From TrEMBL:
Keywords: Cytoplasm, Ribosome biogenesis. It comes from Brevundimonas faecalis. Required for maturation of 30S ribosomal subunits. Residues 174-188 have a biased composition (Acidic residues). Gene3D superfamilies: Ribosome maturation factor RimP, C-terminal domain, RimP-like superfamily, N-terminal. This is Ribosome maturation factor RimP. Residues 189-198 have a biased composition (Polar residues). InterPro entries: Ribosome_maturation_RimP (IPR003728), RimP_C (IPR028998), RimP_C_sf (IPR036847), RimP_N (IPR028989), RimP_N_sf (IPR035956). Residues 168-198 are annotated as: Disordered. Residues 14-88 form the Ribosome maturation factor RimP N-terminal domain.
Amino acid sequence: MRAKTAEDRALLELIDPVAESLGLAVVRVRLMGGTLRRRLQIMAERVTDHDISVEECARLSRAVSEVFDAADPISGEYLLEVSSPGIDRPLTRLIDFDLFEGFEARLETDRMVEGRKRFKGILAGTEGDNVAVDLDGEEDTALIPFEWIADAKLVLTDELLKRGAALRAARGEPEDDGLPEGAAEDEQTNPTPTKDKA
């Protein structure tokens, strides 16, 4: 789930070592858009505390740009965007389901599971290679194989907003940053326009 397409996976192979050298982990890579102007979105965070600063986004952007200038993996013009996963982040790695245990999430599987593909509930961690979820309206905790999950994302709740506020306070950032209530206010972006060499 960190990479959706074969092209995304090839780019992730180039990006992972760069991020690791900076003490960062790649949460997700997506190359989006048509043939004229594409956008490469990289979501990353520190390995140690699963946070990231604007400066670290900028460092990763510069380092990836250097590697891509040499490897030339994307044809045509594209925009490189490096950001935090955001407050209502995608859950792309098995560890994410442990890190956000107790928070509400939406999951979609790549196959039918007991007559459906979409699930919503409170994350209950992991058991082996399975994601545990306390589903809405059901008594038993469901176990869904991680490899069956096509998409998963945290639901923006008051609890999640409080967690985001606590993270900002720990970074020494102001509590009110002028964004509307409920916005993904901890998302940080450092777009770097990049042009393929002719």
